Structures are given as structure tokens and as C-alpha cells.
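Worked example (supplementary).
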Amino acid sequence: MNAHLDYVLHLADTTLVLAQRNSEWCGHGPILEQDIAITNISLDLLGQARNYYQHAASLINTANPNAQADEDSLAYLRDEREFKNPLLVELEKGDWAKTTLRQFLFSVFQDLQLKRLLHSTDTQIAAIAEKSLKETAYHIAWSSEWVIRLGDGTPESHSRMVTALNEVWEFTGGLFVPAPYELQLAGTIAADVSQLEKPWTETVSNVLEEATLSLPGKTFMQQSGKTGIHTEAMGYILAEMQSLKRSLPTATW
Amino acid sequence: MKSFTADEIFRILETVADPEIPVLSILDLGIVRAVNLNGEIPEIVVTPTYSGCPATDAINTDIRLKMMEYGLPKIKITTRLSPAWTTDWMSQAGKKKLEDYGIAPPKPANREITCPRCKSPHVTCISHFGSTACKSLYQCLDCKEPFDYFKCH
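After joint prediction of all chains, the assembly is encoded as:
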């Protein structure tokens, strides 16, 4: 299909997959307030994903009135290779350090991306960005507090943050490498993500410094998720998320 | 079918409550942005509070049910995302109702949050995320009661 639709699906898949990952903490958070916090963040991301999927469905149905696409068919009935989320959001949730660090690294990126999408020539994307930005501010505040608290905490919490940073870092580079559909639309419908790495690194290194963690040096970066090639973790998360809809297509809940 | 004026439709909408905070009507909340009578069927324009607010679908259903009750079965509900909803759109009456209900109403950044029970300004934020997407969890340091604060948004 066309780049415009691919791009909307990329935004949708990214928020949906992270929402699903974070929701794994529901009922398992370290304390009640934090369980509520991470599931609230999940809900925000899921709401954003729904807005993007509804928009994608209307693009599909406008082009082909017989398509009958809707948000559910796009979320539940597409296969792994069709999902266009960056690898960072699909990684297993790990411990609390990994979950909060990944959220922080993603939210700082998302905030920069959404600020550019306010000027998207697709007014629906711009409207969704305007709405989402208010939510992202809370996500950054919450996740950066955790990165600092754990990084600058006990020897145990510090070492967990160091481990988390080593685990997720190689998956951050892909955020800033535009997929072909992004490249085609950069500056019009899409944000030019290649320009976001510098401001992202600046914010991230400030928080890591306060957390007594060091910014990892230049290293090999994984880049494939946005083009549909995923890590081993992706099949499992899709299986869990999609199995009910696929085995009982008419079920409602 | 009986025809309604925009004022009459607004008066009906005044009776639709927020499912999460039933003391507030959807007009208090400021999410009804317009009622348009130019088309074939009346259009009600709604701006959701938070992207993932589960109340959004429930509110749309409640609007339809209430309109049906008043003899207006055919309406169109349009979701408008931009401009994004802000707590500035909440009515003064709504803010008062919130406080009486035990939820501290949204305050601009330079105004202090007070305990909805004892009115003390000595409060502390326990968590930025509360029982619903629109609220944070606070505690009063004087009467010691925890309370919800409706986030300024």
C-alpha cells in the first residue's frame, strides 16, 4: 500500500505494542500507586493507538469502499511482518528498571516526534499529536523520576539500571533511521526522525547523568522494526494479544 | 419527528453525567463543543478528555440513550480531537461540584492545590497517576486524608 497508510500504521503499531507490553504489569506493579501509574500510561498509549488505527481504517475504506477495515481488524488480524513498530517498544518488559528506562527513552523520542507532527500536513495526525503531547509530558516526568531514583539509589537498583541500559541501548538507534515510507513523507505528513537524535541524546544524557549512569558509547544499533523485521519477542506478544480474536472472531467483550 | 432547538438539545445534554464522576454533567466537563442543526440530523461534537479514556465510548452511548428518551433517536456524534480538551473548559459550577464531591478541582500551575475536605494547602503528591486517567493522587498533611486531584490539562 502507499506510504501515507504505512506511516499511520507505523504510529499506531508503535503505541499499541508498548501499551500491550506495559499492561503486562497490571496487577504486578511493585506497589499499588505504581501499578496504577504504569497501567495509566498503557491506557494513554492504547488510546493514541486507537486514534491512529481509526484513521488508518478510514484511509483504507476511502480508497476501497469494500475494504471494511476497522481498528480491530488492523490491530488483531495483521501478521508480524506487517507490524511497523521500532524494536525498542517490543522488547520484553524485564524488571522495573528495564520497563521504566525503556519508557523514558521512548517518551523523550515520542515527545520530539509529536511536536513535529503538530505541523503534519495530515490534519488528523496533527490533531492526534496535539492530544497525545499532553499525555507524554506526564510519561516523561514519571519515567525520568524512576530512572534517577533507581540509578542514583542502592547498589542493587543502580546495577539493575546499568544492566537495563546495556540491554536496551542497541535498540534506540533504529528510532532515528527513517523507514522508506518515512523518508518519502518527511517534512510533509511525517516527522523527519533523523533530526531528532541530537535533542534526544541531550535530554537523555542529562537525566542519565543525574541518575549517575553513563551514556553508552557509539555501538552497533539494531534498526529493522519499522520495516517489519522484528526480534524474537514480537511473535510472542502478538500471539498473546491476537489469539482470542483469531480463534473466536465474533467474540465481543 | 419533533424538531429541537440547539438550546433544548443542550438542556438534554446537561442531564448526561460523566460515568466516572457522576456529579459532573458532560457540559460541566466542557467536552461538548457544538450542536449543529444544519444537516439532515442533529450533530453533537464531542472532544474526548484523554486519548485512552474508557468513559468516552460510554459517554457517546449515554448521549444516544438520553436523546432517544427525549424523542430524538437519530443524531450524529462527531469526535473532534483538535483543539485538544483542556481543564480550562470545565465550568466553574463543575469545579465547585468536584470539590464538594471530594476531588480537588484543577488549578493552574501557579495556584496551590488545597485539600477538598479541610481546605488545608499543606498537601503532597503521592502519585501523578490516580484511579482514572484524569486524576492524580494526593494526601493532605493536616487531616491526613488521601484525595484525588483532577489534573490540570
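Two points are worth noting when inspecting this output. Chain A is about 65% helix and 0% strand. The CA atoms of residues 158 and 208 of chain A lie 11 Å apart.
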